[in-house]
Structures are given as structure tokens and as C-alpha cells.
Amino acid sequence: WILFLPHSVYIYLITSCFVPPHFTSSGFHFLSAVVEVHALPLLVYLMVPSTTLIFTALSNLRQNAFLYFL
After folding, report:
1. Backbone phi, psi, residue 8, to 5°
2. Any transmembrane segments, and where (predicted)?
3. What is the DSSP string of 10-26?
């Protein structure tokens, strides 16, 4: 639950910037600033589960191949 909190906060900020009454030039600058500040942690946050899934799949393949060759 705590891990999903920053992601939902980013989504809320971006969607609140895209709401038409708030979407002015200042809202666009705020959106670009939010994207620039949080792009790297968000990329890392999105990349970590996929890399762990890939590593677990590779380890499972290795274990299955090891059992197969036994």
C-alpha cells in the first residue's frame, strides 16, 4: 500500500494539471516541473518490478533446466 502511494500521487498531480480549468500556462509549467523532477524515480519504480520478474523467470528456467538434465 505504501509503495503504491507515490505512484497514485504522481497520477493525481498529472491528472489535476490536465483538468481544463487548471490547464493554463502555469499548470503546464507545473506539470513539466513535476515530470522532470519525478521522471527518474518513476522510471526506476516502473523498471524494478519488471526486472525482478525477468530475474525470477530466468531463475525458474535455470531450475527447470537443471531438473530436466538430472
Report:
1. -70, -35
2. 9-30, 42-61
3. HHHHHHHHHSTTT-SHH
Please give the Cα distance from 6 to 43 (Å, whole number): 12
| CA 51 to the chain's CA centroid | 12
For residues 46 and 10, the answer to whether their CB atoms sit within 8 Å is no
Is pTM beyond 0.70? Reply is no
| Residue 38 to residue 10: CA distance in whole angstroms | 8
Q: Are 18 and 32 in contact (CB under 8 A)?
A: no
- What is the rounded CA–CA span in Å between residue 6 and residue 34? 12
Q: What is the residue whose three cell numbers read 519504480?
A: 45
Look up cell 509503495; give the residue: 3
pLDDT in tens, 12-51: 666 665 555 444 555 556 666 666 665 666 666 766 777 7
